[in-house]
Amino acid sequence: MDNDYISALQQEFKAVSNSKIAAVQKAYLRNQFSFYGMKSPVRREAQKPFLVKQFLPAKENLDQLVRTLWQKPQREFHYFAQELVQKYCKQFEKDDILLLEFMVVTNSWWDTVDFIATSLIGSYFKKFPDQINPVTKKWMVSENIWLQRSCLLFQLKWKKNIDPVFLEQTINELIGSKEFFINKAIGWILRQYSRTNQDWVIDYVDRTELNSLSKREALKLIS
Question: How many CA within 13 A on the CB side of residue 187?
Fold first, then answer.
């Protein structure tokens, strides 16, 4: 059934593919991935029937299905796979963090990692808060910048529920990084937190030697 599911999805994607759009999309992501070539509204319309609740694959098939989609060369399959996983957030089990980690470290770039971190890992950790420390400790020492970026960004949508103690500890461990995607994420999460706790962000930035990019991003909403 899962092979039929993927084959049918592939037919829909091929039907609306556009080689000119594909070339532009491939160049935008530094020629790292192939594309069928379709803008997001077109892709979402093509995949819509595959995300209807009554037609979703069984939860026990999700892991293998997503791993199969993730290994396909066209980036649209990866976008679809992460939006498919989002349909199962309420059904997450503890072991599902292994699938989310696989998605972060495989075919990694910001366009998928940011969705996985904020929409999937964030939901997972809300359901299993006891997993935050053991999982993120492992990720922080992994030297994988995408796992580290996920440690920074999984709280992005948590608003006033962002844990400032965890946030400060995570940022402090990454200060001195030369990685653009780490320094940008530090600024991004601080900027987001400034929406609900501006005083804390101002204080933290004042007493911390942040990268200039991180500092600039962190203070964007603060006059």
Answer: 19
CA separation for the pair 112, 77 (Å, rounded) = 11
Taking only the tens place, the pLDDT of each residue in 60-104 is: 999 999 999 999 999 999 999 999 999 999 999 999 999 999 999
Measured CA to CA, the distance from residue 50 to residue 71 in angstroms comes to: 19
The token pair at 43 is 């892709």
Write down the pTM of the prediction: 0.96
Question: Do 141 and 175 contact (CB within 8 A), yes or no?
Answer: no
Q: Alpha helix locations (H) across 38-196? A: 40-47, 62-70, 75-86, 96-105, 110-115, 122-127, 132-140, 145-153, 164-174, 180-193
CA torsion sign for 206, 168, 85, 184 is positive
Query: Which residues in 137-173 are b (16+ Cβ under 10 Å) and which e?
Result: eebbeeeebbbbbbbbbbbbebeeebeeeebeebbee
